Amino acid sequence: MQDLSTSDLNQVLEIGQISIGCDTIDDLHDAAITRMQKALRADTSVMINILREGQSVRFKAHKAFDHPDSEMRRWCAQYQQQDPFVNCYINEFKTRSSNVIVSNQVVRDREYQVSKFYNEFLRPMSIYHVMVVGLCAGNFPFGLIGFHRPKNAPAFSDREIAMAELMSPHIVAANQKVRVSNMMGEREQLIEMLVSDGLYNSILLLDENLTPLYVNQGASELLESINRCMSMRQNQKAAVPPALLDRCRKLLSAVEQKADTEGLLEFDLKVSPSSRTIGVSLRPVENGVGKMQVMVCLRSAETEPAFNHNTIKRFG
Fold first, then answer.
1. Residue 200: how many CA atoms within 13 Å on its side-chain side?
2. For the CA atoms of 268, 269, 275, 276, what is the dihedral angle to 10 degrees?
3. pLDDT, tens digit (0-9, with 9 covering 90-100), for 102-116
4. Peptide bond before 305: cis, by omega within 30 degrees of 0?
5. Alpha helices, DSSP H, located in the chain
6. Residue 171, SS3 per DSSP
7. How remote is the C-alpha of 218 from its chain's centroid?
8. Is the pLDDT of residue 232 over 60?
9. What does the alpha-carbon distance between residue 28 and residue 45 come to, in Å, rounded to a whole number?
């Protein structure tokens, strides 16, 4: 990697500090990408979302900075297939060591200047030099940032490529933090809806390791009364009955193997040595970063087993 100065590294650190302090996706893009654009000395920039639909890929315009929104949408609708830079990034994603591509690495100037993509789309906007920065969480990118300069400006340098490579993981991490936070907020609202509807008084959410992420008061009290041990609100996995953990483990295994989950979603849990019976409904839910979790709804045997599937399936 190109050697960076203290000033360069401070700008990378600043992007990280700005990114992690953002609470919404719009705040993240407004603050961090605008600052990144300035640090990379780009005139304009765009943020494009990538959506996978089976084997195909679809691009969705998200936000433009000092760049016409209409042109960003026109790229998604008409010109993305002609874009040599984005196509190069997508096609070489699995084999490239860098998540940054610049235009002069992809196409020769002579070919570029006579291309339809440049003359019809980029040239009218005074765009010549392009940097594409991929945003990836997992095994495929979820977004792209495009930075632009006019023809009379210098091409993006190796130093600026190295800076972009160090800046982009901060954007990715902050993006994932906001997504997970939003998802947890939405699920807490749905959980409260289930409770307020009178269907379930006891609800908990377990992560992929079956460690509690969320436990409402009803679940905490019920599990404590069953186990006579430390409250779940102290994140003690032992407070969850082993038989229930075993069923949750089997459900996650079935989901991972794409096996039939029939018989794993609803069952009665016998509490020993008492004769108490607890009705259980499980729901596998994705946490937004590719990990499966389990929502657990508990009810006493005296409660009518009126599981609201329409509400529960909103978690999946």
1. 27
2. -80
3. 999 999 999 999 999
4. no
5. 6-20, 25-28, 34-39, 69-74, 84-91, 103-106, 109-113, 116, 158-196, 217-227, 242-256, 309-312
6. helix
7. 31
8. no
9. 14
Question: In this predicted structure, what is the pLDDT of residue 25?
Answer: 83
* CA–CA dist 258, 281 (Å, integer): 19
The answer to whether the beta carbons of residues 50 and 141 sit under 8 Å apart is yes
Band (263; pLDDT cuts 50, 70, 90): confident
Q: Quickly tell me which residue has 């709804």 as its tokens.
A: 297
For the record, the structure tokens of 273 come out as 């040595």
Spatial distance between the Cα atoms of 15 and 135, rounded to a whole number of angstroms: 15
Looking at residue 262, its pLDDT comes to 74
Concatenate the DSSP letters of all residues of 29-52 into one string.
IIIIIHHHHHHTT-SEEEEEEEEE
Give CA–CA dist 121/77, Å, rounded.
12
Q: Would you state the structure tokens that stand for residue 73, as one six-digit string?
A: 């949408």
3-class SS of residue 141? strand
> String of b and e for 107-120 (b: at least 16 CB within 10 Å)?
beeeebeebebbee
Report pTM: 0.64
Max CA-CA distance within the chain? 83
Query: What pLDDT does residue 316 have?
Result: 47
Residue pLDDT, tens place only, 28-87: 888 999 999 999 999 999 999 998 766 678 898 888 999 989 999 999 999 999 999 999
- 252's CB contacts (< 8 A; 6+ apart) are 208, 210, 284, 292, 294
- How do residues 179-211 score in pLDDT, each as one tens digit? 777 666 666 666 665 555 555 678 888 888 888
